[in-house]
Amino acid sequence: MTKKPTKPQAPSTQQHVNVVQVKQGIIVTRTGSLRQVLKVEPVNFALKSDQDKEVMIGQYQNFINSLTFPIQIVIHSRRLDVTPYLHRLSQRVAQEPNELLQLHAYEYIDFVSELTSMTNIMDKKFYVVVGYEPPPTARKGFLSNLFGKKQDIISFTETDWQKHAAEMGQHVGTIAGGLAGLGLKVDTLDTQEAIELLYGVYNPEEATSEKLTEVESMQSSVVSLTAQGAPTQPAGTPVTTPPATAQPTGQGAGVPVTAPPQPAPPAQPAQPLPIKQPQGGSDAPKQ
């Protein structure tokens, strides 16, 4: 009896993401390239005077011409999520002793909540992505890639990683210093913020309703299933994997899912009160 050919297993969504690790705020791609993201607070250029505009344009031109490595300017637009703001406001209103202020505050919370549900209020954020390409000889699997064997994940030794992280830090410092000279505030995204940014880019709809937990609870090795179905954990240092596309009916690879709260136990029925029997008298039943 011939066996039926088994269908090939469909690749996971994480295999289509070009990010394999986020470590110390640095994003590692499948080809071994390193990226770090800077968040830039914009200024209102239209309100500047003509002289200030010319000065800023000249400084920006000198900043771009002085770069010796590539950068990418990203403008990320998404729907503004005011849920955390309303939650914090509700907590403060609950502690307000003045009843009149409480009433006005609750009306304001209802107004903002209804306004955001009826209209799409967009929020724009500006980022600068700094790139660094390690030498090919420092990437694991370079010779196999050269001769046709594709290496899925590029890894570095701890010594090479510290060296490349230092080089990336110099590039980031150069960009931050140049933008600060233009009067712009620059913040470097840490690991948690970088993962949240990637999660929002790959899952724009789910990011507004399904929030990520802290990065410490997301750091774990990849867990696979054996032939018997028992989970096994491969040896290696735990790494932070980027979040894959969220799945509404299950747990996506690399995305932590918060367990639903357990239902409260049913209330016990009230015990009947003891009734004192009459001791004789005319009210006692006759035999």
Automatic annotation (TrEMBL):
Domain TraC-like: 23-130
Low complexity composition-biased segments: 229-250
Protein name, per record: TraC-like domain-containing protein
Composition bias type Pro residues, residue spans: 258-272
Region (Disordered): 220-287
InterPro entries per UniProt: TraC-like_dom (IPR058596)
Organism: Candidatus Berkelbacteria bacterium CG10_big_fil_rev_8_21_14_0_10_43_14
